Fold this sequence. Notes:
By secondary structure, this protein is mostly helical. It has six helices and no strands. The protein has helices spanning 7-19, 33-48, 64-73, 85-88, 94-111, 128-145. Helix 1 (7-19) runs antiparallel to helix 5.
Amino acid sequence: MSTLTDPAARRELIARLQQLDLDAQPAWGRMNAPRMLAHCADALRMAYGDMHCTAKRVPLVRTALVRRLMLYVLPFPKNAPTARELLARAPGEGEAERETLKALIARFESEMGRASWPEHPLFGALDEREWGRLAYKHLDHHLTQFRV
């Protein structure tokens, strides 16, 4: 199961980012490629604790069983709602957004081994393994959205 804790998975995502056509139309959704890159970069900033998102109190989702299903079993849903903070920033120039996201993916290695991770606004407390899986799954979802 792919995760950002795995160096090969990080390299694979970065290689896929290089293949992204910044003018490509998404297979679903309304984001263009630069907006998707900014959204994914901000999601990683949230994972690292650089950005705060308001918690959504959905008690059932915070249970271990549902969290496990969402992270490890079920596919990432298309057009799922997201934290408004992860869509608030206007994207910069596409190539700059791509480079920022590549650096944020690579940063996961230096974040590994930290004592604690921020809470996810929907899932609540996640450990390194769970953040690594969720971040990979989110990035894969959006790269697939743009056919890379």
